[in-house]
Specification:
single chain, alpha+beta, 4 strands, four-stranded antiparallel β-sheet, Beta-Lactamase
Length: about 140
Protein backbone atom coordinates (compact mmCIF):
# COMPACT_ATOMS: atom_id res chain seq x y z
CA UNK A 1 0.00 0.00 0.00
CA UNK A 2 1.37 3.46 -0.89
CA UNK A 3 2.36 5.94 1.80
CA UNK A 4 0.11 8.61 0.32
CA UNK A 5 -3.57 9.21 -0.31
CA UNK A 6 -5.14 10.12 -3.62
CA UNK A 7 -6.63 13.58 -3.48
CA UNK A 8 -8.70 15.87 -5.64
CA UNK A 9 -8.10 19.55 -6.19
CA UNK A 10 -9.96 22.43 -7.74
CA UNK A 11 -8.61 23.46 -11.13
CA UNK A 12 -8.62 27.00 -12.41
CA UNK A 13 -11.15 25.89 -15.02
CA UNK A 14 -13.50 24.65 -12.29
CA UNK A 15 -13.02 27.87 -10.33
CA UNK A 16 -13.90 29.98 -13.34
CA UNK A 17 -16.90 27.78 -14.12
CA UNK A 18 -18.15 28.35 -10.57
CA UNK A 19 -17.70 32.11 -10.82
CA UNK A 20 -19.54 32.20 -14.15
CA UNK A 21 -22.47 30.19 -12.77
CA UNK A 22 -22.67 32.34 -9.64
CA UNK A 23 -22.56 35.56 -11.66
CA UNK A 24 -25.28 34.27 -13.97
CA UNK A 25 -27.52 33.47 -10.98
CA UNK A 26 -26.81 36.86 -9.37
CA UNK A 27 -27.74 38.62 -12.61
CA UNK A 28 -30.86 36.47 -12.92
CA UNK A 29 -32.11 37.41 -9.45
CA UNK A 30 -30.89 41.01 -9.71
CA UNK A 31 -28.24 41.23 -6.98
CA UNK A 32 -24.68 42.61 -6.84
CA UNK A 33 -22.40 40.25 -4.98
CA UNK A 34 -18.86 39.05 -4.44
CA UNK A 35 -17.91 35.42 -5.11
CA UNK A 36 -14.92 33.51 -3.77
CA UNK A 37 -13.51 30.02 -4.34
CA UNK A 38 -10.80 28.68 -2.01
CA UNK A 39 -8.89 25.41 -1.92
CA UNK A 40 -8.89 23.03 1.06
CA UNK A 41 -6.22 25.10 2.83
CA UNK A 42 -8.22 28.33 2.47
CA UNK A 43 -6.08 29.86 -0.28
CA UNK A 44 -8.09 31.99 -2.71
CA UNK A 45 -8.25 30.43 -6.16
CA UNK A 46 -10.80 32.74 -7.75
CA UNK A 47 -12.56 35.91 -6.66
CA UNK A 48 -14.78 38.50 -8.27
CA UNK A 49 -16.68 41.50 -7.02
CA UNK A 50 -19.52 42.61 -9.28
CA UNK A 51 -19.82 46.24 -10.26
CA UNK A 52 -21.96 47.86 -7.59
CA UNK A 53 -21.25 45.23 -4.91
CA UNK A 54 -20.64 46.51 -1.39
CA UNK A 55 -16.96 47.01 -0.52
CA UNK A 56 -16.99 44.80 2.58
CA UNK A 57 -18.74 41.98 0.74
CA UNK A 58 -15.32 40.96 -0.57
CA UNK A 59 -13.94 40.44 2.92
CA UNK A 60 -16.97 38.64 4.30
CA UNK A 61 -17.30 36.45 1.22
CA UNK A 62 -13.70 35.29 1.48
CA UNK A 63 -14.19 34.49 5.18
CA UNK A 64 -17.33 32.49 4.35
CA UNK A 65 -15.39 30.40 1.80
CA UNK A 66 -12.49 29.81 4.21
CA UNK A 67 -14.86 28.90 7.04
CA UNK A 68 -16.84 26.40 4.98
CA UNK A 69 -13.67 24.72 3.68
CA UNK A 70 -11.99 24.50 7.08
CA UNK A 71 -15.07 23.46 9.04
CA UNK A 72 -16.31 21.15 6.26
CA UNK A 73 -19.80 22.57 6.72
CA UNK A 74 -21.93 25.35 5.29
CA UNK A 75 -21.57 28.66 7.10
CA UNK A 76 -24.29 29.79 9.47
CA UNK A 77 -24.38 26.53 11.46
CA UNK A 78 -22.35 27.38 14.58
CA UNK A 79 -24.09 27.94 17.91
CA UNK A 80 -23.61 31.59 18.91
CA UNK A 81 -21.72 30.61 22.07
CA UNK A 82 -18.96 29.07 19.89
CA UNK A 83 -18.51 31.94 17.43
CA UNK A 84 -16.03 34.07 19.40
CA UNK A 85 -13.75 31.14 20.22
CA UNK A 86 -13.84 30.02 16.57
CA UNK A 87 -12.92 33.55 15.43
CA UNK A 88 -9.96 33.54 17.81
CA UNK A 89 -8.80 30.06 16.75
CA UNK A 90 -9.07 30.94 13.06
CA UNK A 91 -7.32 34.31 13.48
CA UNK A 92 -10.45 36.25 12.51
CA UNK A 93 -11.20 34.22 9.37
CA UNK A 94 -14.25 32.46 10.86
CA UNK A 95 -17.74 33.73 10.15
CA UNK A 96 -21.13 32.35 11.05
CA UNK A 97 -22.92 34.22 8.25
CA UNK A 98 -24.78 32.01 5.74
CA UNK A 99 -23.61 31.87 2.12
CA UNK A 100 -20.54 29.60 2.21
CA UNK A 101 -20.43 25.91 1.23
CA UNK A 102 -17.72 23.27 1.25
CA UNK A 103 -16.80 21.76 -2.12
CA UNK A 104 -16.96 17.99 -1.69
CA UNK A 105 -15.75 15.43 -4.23
CA UNK A 106 -15.86 11.70 -3.46
CA UNK A 107 -16.49 12.49 0.20
CA UNK A 108 -13.40 14.72 0.39
CA UNK A 109 -13.59 18.46 1.09
CA UNK A 110 -11.40 20.10 -1.55
CA UNK A 111 -12.34 23.72 -0.94
CA UNK A 112 -15.10 26.19 -0.32
CA UNK A 113 -17.26 28.59 -2.31
CA UNK A 114 -19.16 31.60 -1.03
CA UNK A 115 -21.25 34.55 -2.12
CA UNK A 116 -21.89 37.72 -0.17
CA UNK A 117 -23.26 41.21 -0.40
CA UNK A 118 -26.96 40.62 -0.93
CA UNK A 119 -29.65 39.43 1.46
CA UNK A 120 -28.54 36.23 3.20
CA UNK A 121 -31.07 34.10 1.33
CA UNK A 122 -29.81 35.52 -1.97
CA UNK A 123 -26.18 34.86 -1.00
CA UNK A 124 -27.12 31.22 -0.40
CA UNK A 125 -28.92 30.95 -3.76
CA UNK A 126 -25.92 32.37 -5.64
CA UNK A 127 -23.37 30.22 -3.79
CA UNK A 128 -25.44 27.08 -4.39
CA UNK A 129 -25.60 27.90 -8.11
CA UNK A 130 -21.82 28.29 -8.19
CA UNK A 131 -21.34 24.97 -6.37
CA UNK A 132 -23.80 23.18 -8.65
CA UNK A 133 -21.71 24.19 -11.68
CA UNK A 134 -19.11 21.56 -10.77
CA UNK A 135 -20.95 19.10 -8.52
CA UNK A 136 -23.95 18.27 -10.69
CA UNK A 137 -22.32 18.01 -14.11
Amino acid sequence: MPDFAATHRITHEASMKMLAAGLAKANEIGVKISLCVVDASGQTLAFIMMDGARFFSGRTTTKKAITSASQRLPTGYAPEENVLSMQIRMDGDFTNVPGGFPIIVDGQVIGGVAAGGAQLEEDVIVAKAALAAITTS
